Amino acid sequence: MSYFSNCVAIYKCVVLEWGAVVGRKRIVKPRFWVLMMATLVLVFACVYISQGQLMSHQEARIADLEAQRMSKMAQNAQIERKIAFTKTEEYVERIAHEELGLLRKDEIRFVAGSQVGDE
């Protein structure tokens, strides 16, 4: 046998058409591809699970913020009703009667006997 045929037979070298030996040809076994595919599947599964957890956390946060928003909108509506009420005549009369002690035209003030002597 010649040197080149020994090289091809033993080392599985690649021989170019002009007779030069390029190097050893590597044979990739199927278990390498199975291992590579299993690794990729594992990585993609981990990413998918972590993204699912992140999305569920974000959905819970959105629901919480939406509840806070609805609460604030209800408070805002209540404050707007109070502001609108303060601009009415009824509010002015109520404050004058309750806080300032003023009487309406048709009201009569009753003074208890113990209060007369104190004045």
How would you describe the overall organization of this protein?
The chain has 4 helices and 2 strands. It has helices at 3-11, 30-86, 89-98, 113-118, and strands at 13-15, 21-24. It has a two-stranded antiparallel sheet with strand order 1-2. It is rod-shaped and about 120 Å long.
Task: List key phrases describing it.
two-stranded antiparallel sheet; mainly alpha; rod-shaped
Query: Which structural class fits the helix and strand makeup?
Result: mainly alpha
Question: How much strand content do the residues show?
Answer: 5-15%
Q: Radius of gyration over alpha carbons?
A: 46 Å
Distance between the terminal alpha carbons, to the nearest Å?
Answer: 139 Å
- The number of helices is 4
Low-confidence stretches: 8-12
Q: Give, in order, the helices and strands.
A: HEEHHH
Percent helix range: 55-70%
The backbone outline, from C-alpha atoms, is rod-shaped
